[in-house]
Design goal:
The complex is a heterodimer of chains A (about 400) and B (about 375). Chain A has about 400 residues and is mostly beta strands. Chain A is about 5% helix and about 50% strand. In chain A, strands 1, 2, 3, 4 and 31 form a 5-stranded antiparallel beta sheet that branches. In chain A, strands 26, 27, 28, 29 and 30 form a 5-stranded antiparallel beta sheet that branches. In chain A, strands 6-7-8-9 form a 4-stranded antiparallel beta sheet, with no helix packed on it. The two termini of chain A are about 35 Å apart. Chain B is α/β, with parallel strands linked by helices. Chain B has one domain (about 10-365). Chain B has 7 helices and 22 strands. Chain B has helices at about 65-70, 135-140, 165-170, 175, 220-230, 290-300, 355, and strands at about 1-5, 20, 25, 50-55, 75-85, 85-95, 105-115, 120-125, 150, 160, 185-190, 195-200, 205, 215-220, 240-245, 250, 255-265, 270-275, 305-315, 315-325, 340, 345. In chain B, the strands form 6 sheets. In chain B, strands 4, 7, 8, 11, 12, 13, 14, 15, 16, 17 and 18 form an 11-stranded mixed beta sheet that branches. In chain B, about 55% of the residues are buried. The chains are: A mainly beta (about 400), B alpha/beta (about 375).
């Protein structure tokens, strides 16, 4: 039996078991990328490829810059964008204050296109947060406390469209996200005054629309497919807390809808909506679990989120220890997401792989987590291809 | 939530990286389950400021001497002493004085910083300081740290040389006065162009001082910027970068830094940061007090891993340290004023190895325990260990 046939048979068995037919079955490689954020040494991003129910380490992305090995849970230090038929991957180097751009149309043979510096933007505090949508890459610089806007060119190179100094913030960015319709930028802050900012995006121009206090301490962001609701994971050591806001058509935010959920789960910095938007996955960063909350956009305020289930404690890597779990992404673009990837910072660091059944309560697969040989600080990840919004 | 940097090469002291530094217990700002330092954290007085050795990251102790010989890190040697039946090893810059005369020239780069604060204050190490036509950079280059001055503690001439060389010669006087008369550890300094840093309001502020305004900057922000400069300036691990500033302190929740030294990586990169302060800001001197402190410590514990018997500062008491930091036991103590090119400099006293090793009598010059003879006996620990 050749490898392809073996893979197809394995995938078919999994599909039978879950009722999900995944893109990986059709031959599209599914990858997970996580910035290692190596402290003051040549940085890299680890790349894993999903093969059946296993993550295999693939060619790493060597940035040539430096990392800082610290940061906020919400700070996504990698992003993927598709420009035409070209797949571009961006990895931040907060230790050298640049963004490394790769052409990853073929993830097996990535090509570094360049390292891009905004002289008014520095991430050498808690990192450079990245968010990509269309041909726009927005960078949140934690040390210079501002936002830079970059245009992604067809060869994955970057052109500065708005220097970071043009877009000051009131505190270092934790996470930022661009709404699926491309019209709103949401920024959270990991600081003493919890809150969230919204900006309208017009071309490559950001216009601040409001600053909003929050009940929880804001961290990771997700936005619904219709761009009408904002979900924010809060850092909260002993609980799972979510802030939810309606997003108005003018990019302002509506009234906060705060959830302190039951069911356990320690800390909740990272959130991820299932592709069908029926559940919200929450990474319990210090409890090493994943909490699933039922989500209904049409429900009344105060009833949009409800506890559904919580996973078992994720397994330590063999011979090692998890220090924190980080951000998540789903493998499939439909249903509950097929598989859930969870970044794990530990010794060694790893990516956990959880299979998601129809009820949305993920369970870690045999063999998970899959370790990362680089010594760094991988606490966020991005998947490609992934959810289509 | 901010996640701290945990060095997974090292035993995790606390899950969220509460580091210890010499002379004070310091929870890394923003470390662990908590928030980065709020902007409202302000030292109540610059007098709180001090010097510190920041724990190293990613150092491979087993390769340091070979790397020094290969020229991929600063030239260094290792020695040891026994106290109360325990052997303590240490690594210092230069060569082993027990092996005779040799001159080590440490290649150092002087990197002046220009800080622009959100209130418009500019503190520039290349601009004239308050009440003088010369800049911080010029005054440092012309100081006894890098110019030859006659040093004669207690009347014993240890040489006309740079201060740290004089200190190290006096430190190992039992050899230098006998079998290693031409033993030297000197610094060859190359100035680099001024580097400008813009401080966001969130990370810094200024207040009035006795001369120019005093700048306060978040420590984590500051050290992050120095890391970027190390990268952008392509600083080699075979050189010692010295970041110097004018009148700027770095704050964390538990400590305010006037200077610090540390090292990272493999091969190891040693670097230091020190402020040059207006007279009157501190009890003792200003000018090169902190740079002499950090340069002395960078020489005698370059990789911040020299473990010695626990000691406490005889002046201040309190918590004990177990690092061979030659500046900390004599913080705020001088060796007198040295006038060079018309400027009065105040080098800080530095502590001899016998103070840490407990040698009685001291094998250093005059049988002293510090260059300025501020202590008459070896170290003791009057409090709990903090390391």
């Amino acid at each position: 039996m050749n490898n392809t046939l073996r893979t197809l048979m394995g995938a078919a068995l999994l599909a039978c078991g879950t009722g999900i037919l995944r893109a990986q079955d059709a031959g599209t490689p599914h990858v997970v990328i996580t910035d290692n954020d190596v402290y003051r040494a040549p940085n890299s991003a680890a790349v894993f490829q999903l093969s059946g129910s296993t993550l295999r380490s693939s060619t790493a992305l060597s940035t040539t810059g430096w990392g800082i090995s610290t940061g906020f849970f919400g700070t996504n230090e990698q992003a993927v964008a598709t420009v035409g038929t070209t797949v571009c991957t961006f990895v931040s180097d907060p230790g050298s204050d640049d963004i490394a751009a790769f052409n990853t149309t073929n993830f097996a043979a990535p090509r570094l296109v360049g390292n891009y510096v905004d002289l008014t933007g520095s991430g050498a505090y808690t990192g450079i947060a990245l968010a990509a949508r269309g041909s726009l890459l927005i960078a949140g610089y934690s040390a210079s406390v501002n936002i830079g806007v970059w245009t992604i060119n067809s060869d994955c190179s970057l052109t500065s469209s708005s220097a970071a100094s043009n877009n000051p913030l009131e505190a270092p960015v934790n996470d930022l996200a661009i709404s699926p319709n491309g019209s709103t930028l949401i920024v959270t802050f990991g600081q003493t005054t919890p809150g969230v900012d919204s900006f309208a995006i017009t071309g490559t121009t950001l216009t601040k629309k409001g600053s909003y206090n929050t009940t929880g301490n804001t961290a990771g962001i997700d936005i619904t497919k219709d761009s009408k609701y904002l979900l924010i994971g809060d850092y909260s050591l002993a609980s799972t807390e979510i802030d939810l806001f309606p997003i108005n058509s003018d990019s302002t935010l509506g009234t906060e809808d705060y959830y302190l959920t039951s069911g356990g789960g320690a800390d909740s910095n990272n959130v991820w909506l299932s592709p069908d938007e029926t559940v919200l996955y929450v990474s319990n960063n210090v409890g090493f679990q994943v909490t699933t909350l039922r989500f209904s956009e049409t429900a009344a305020a105060g009833h949009r989120l409800a506890f559904a289930c919580i996973s078992s404690i994720l397994k330590n890597p063999i011979g090692g220890t998890i220090y924190y779990t980080g951000s998540m992404a789903t493998e499939s673009g439909t249903g509950k997401g097929g598989y859930l990837y969870v970044a794990e910072y530990g010794n060694p660091s790893a990516v956990a792989l959880l299979q998601i059944p129809a009820n949305g309560c993920p369970a870690e697969v045999s063999g998970s987590p899959f370790t990362n040989s680089a010594i760094g600080f991988p606490v966020t990840l991005v998947a490609y291809p992934s959810r289509p919004f | 939530m901010r996640i701290s940097n945990i060095d997974i090469h090292m035993p995790v002291r606390l899950a969220f990286a509460t580091f210890a530094i010499v002379g004070c217990a310091w929870a890394q700002s923003g470390g662990g389950i908590g928030l980065p330092p709020p902007v409202t954290h302000k030292p109540t007085s610059p007098q709180q400021a001090g010097s510190a050795a920041i724990p190293p990251r990613g150092i491979d102790p087993s390769s340091l001497e070979a790397a020094g010989l290969a020229g991929t890190t600063l030239a260094n040697w290792s020695g040891s002493f026994v106290r109360s039946g325990t052997t303590y090893s240490y690594t210092m810059l230069g060569t082993n004085p027990a092996l005779g005369s040799a001159t080590t020239t440490v290649s150092a780069v002087l990197i002046p910083l220009k800080l622009i604060f959100s209130d418009g204050t500019v503190l520039d190490a290349t601009a004239p300081i308050f009440g003088n036509s010369r800049s911080t950079e010029q005054l440092i280059e012309q100081s006894p740290l890098f110019q030859n001055v006659a040093f004669a503690p207690g009347g014993a001439s240890v040489g006309t040389t740079q201060y740290i060389d004089a200190f190290q010669r006096a430190n190992f006087w039992n050899y230098v006065n006998t079998s290693a008369k031409n033993y030297h550890v000197r610094f060859q300094v190359t100035p680099m162009p001024v580097q400008t840093l813009t401080v966001p309001a969130y990370f810094g502020y200024t207040e009035a001082g006795p001369g120019s305004r005093i700048g306060y900057v978040d420590y984590n922000w500051w050290d992050g910027q120095l890391g970027v400069l190390l990268y952008r300036l392509n600083i080699q691990t075979s050189t010692l970068p010295m970041f110097v500033n004018y009148n700027i302190l770095q704050y964390s929740p538990d400590f305010t830094y006037a200077g610090y030294h540390t090292a990272f990586g493999n091969p190891a990169q040693v670097y230091l940061s020190a402020g040059f302060f207006d007279q009157g800001l501190f009890t003792y001197g200003g000018d090169i007090v902190f740079l002499s402190h950090e340069l002395g410590e960078s020489t005698d514990d370059p990789f911040v891993d020299n473990i010695v018997p626990s000691w406490s500062n005889p002046q201040t008491g309190g918590s004990c340290s177990d690092l061979l930091e030659v500046g900390d036991p004599v913080s705020d103590l001088g060796i007198g004023t040295y006038v060079v090119n018309g400027y009065s400099y105040h080098p800080e006293d530095l502590t001899f190895l016998p103070w840490f090793s407990g040698a009685m009598p001291s094998t250093s010059v005059n049988g002293w325990y510090t260059f300025g003879n501020n202590y008459s006996g070896p170290s003791t620990c009057s409090g709990g260990s903090i390391r």
